[in-house]
Amino acid sequence: MTTTYAVLSEGLEKRFGTVHALRGLDLAVAEGTVCGVLGPNGAGKTTAVRLLTTLLRPDAGSARIAGHDLVREAAAVRRRIAVTGQDTSIDGDLTGRENLRLFARLHRVDGAAVRAAALLDRFGLTEAADRPASGYSGGMRRRLDLAASLIRRPEVLFLDEPTTGLDPASRNLIWDVVRELTGEGTTVLLTTQYLEEADRLADDIALVDRGRVAQTGSPAELKALVGTHAEVVVADADALPAAAGVLDRLTGSLPSVDPERNAVGAVAKDPTLTLPHLVRTLDAAGVPLLDASLRPPTLDDVFLRLTDGHHVHHPRDDKERAA
Amino acid sequence: MSTLAYDGTAMLGRQLRRARNNPGLLILTQTMPISMLLFFGYVFGSALAVPGAGYRSFLVPGLLVATAAGGVMTGMFQSAQDVHRGVTDRLRTLPMSRAAVPVGQAAADVLVTAAGTVPFLLVGLAVGWRVEGSALGAVGALALLLLFRFACVWIGMFLGLLTRNEEAAGQLGGATFLLPLLSSAYIPTAGLPDGLRTVAEWNPISAVATALRELFGNAPVPEGAAWPVAHPVAGSLGWCAVLLAVFVPLAVRQYGRGRG
């Protein structure tokens, strides 16, 4: 049984003048899954989405979207995808309803009015439906934008930072919609700077850094790469060697001792290590324990570790397109 | 072709709906030529002598053509705005005809322009302008006017897709107000110094304005003018053909390329 990939790219490259935005992007997104493309500003996420949605032509490399060649069969690709970018792409001079009816017509959807009404309802826009979209709040615009992408259920949906700058209610609505869509078989590729978003939605994560995929894996796999951080604090310094001995044994990695705080820390590669087990083992060894903690890794840890922490991220500032 | 017709009609509907939702803008663009007619007609009219015609009869066709040339600005602004707002990107990811977007936009613009000539010509009638030739000639004049508008919108759409910047398009668009000044839209070119006269007479606006004056029967074709003005109807059709042959493919190609 082979996996069918909804998005499969090999060595995609794109230059904008002297800026080498993508330096050989390899992505494989299995059908019906959510792939989170995670990366700092300027990593190439938006460029990748613009290439994969036929808005830009690659300088090198190839990709197949829903089984069709990105360049040679661009029209077939366009029939199977939908995109919601980080900048909304609706017509502010039209009402929400007029926008959806227009896109429904262009998609050759029968009963455009009915479909538009259903989507307005699903995205909580019925009340505002007949007002010009230019007067919508940021969250409403983004919801209308996503609704426009779902006029016809796409085989592959591209979401470029869909929740950046959104209020929690709009964000939750968008997350729910993504889960519904994958339940119906749509493949979703979403870029995000929010690790929490990738953690919650993505089946697989591709960490993109400087125009390449630096690491791929499920959120759990990526976290396992970093490991759980265990730390204990003991009552007096004499107990530090014994505590370090126990941590060494349990985590299999070299503990670091902080004599000022009477603390010992170590990274556990084994994700099954639990706090009760840690505490019982230390107690049995007669260690006078004051405090113990296990901090599971967050994707932030993964992110910082795998990208060498060479960047600071500023949400809402990810304009990595050609100047 | 049926895809182009279907998608083009959808895009035309979009532009008409936008115009309807934004009546303020529409009223403003209609008020402009009317105020110019009243202002120029009565201020310059007292000082300017036009051979074989009253100044206001001469000015009405000229202003119609100058306003049609404003299609460069309208086309540029709308296209740049669509790019800027991301609408162009969304349309470019849809499985629709690529040419439908500019075709629909240009067609809608011609319809809006046609509607706009009605109040303008009513004011023209009020200040003394008349159709002094045949009804057929008048229909031909209006058809030529709309064809010229259609050509101008294509120039504008190409420039708008090229600049992609709403503000730059607005600035550049302002400059298009200068184009009719160096033509026979507002003044007879016969009085201009030789060099300027040649430039003005090779301005497409002059050919179309002269053609309209001839077809409406408002003023005779000036003596000794450059070829497009001396043969104004053929000259105007020729200009429109050249502009369309150049800018339709350019705009469609630029639309397909997008940014980057």
Description:
The complex is a heterodimer of chains A (323) and B (260). Chain A has helices at 45-52, 74-80, 96-106, 112-122, 138-149, 168-183, 195-201, 219-226, 240-251, 275-284, 299-306, and strands at residues 5-16, 19-30, 34-38, 60-65, 68-69, 81-84, 156-160, 187-192, 204-209, 212-217, 228-234, 256-258, 263-268, 289-295. Chain A has 11 helices and 14 strands. With 323 residues, chain A is α/β, with parallel strands linked by helices. Chain A has 2 domains: 5-223, 3-Layer(aba) Sandwich (Rossmann fold), CATH 3.40.50.300; 228-296, Alpha-Beta Plaits, CATH 3.30.70. The two termini of chain A are 45 Å apart. In chain A, β12 (256-258) and β13 (263-268) form a beta hairpin. Chain B is an all-alpha fold and 260 residues long. Chain B has one domain. Chain B has 12 helices and no strands. Chain B has helices at residues 2-21, 23-43, 55-69, 71-84, 87-92, 100-126, 135-163, 166-175, 194-201, 204-216, 227-230, 232-257. In chain B, α2 (23-43) packs antiparallel against α3 (55-69). Chain B is globular and about 55 Å long. Chain B starts with a helix and ends with a helix. The mean pLDDT of chain B is 92. The A-B interface holds A 14, 16, 50, 53-56, 75, 78-79, 81-83, 85, 87-95, 98, 102-103, 105-107, 132, 148, 321-322 and B 7, 10, 13-14, 17-18, 21-22, 82, 85-87, 89-96, 258-260.
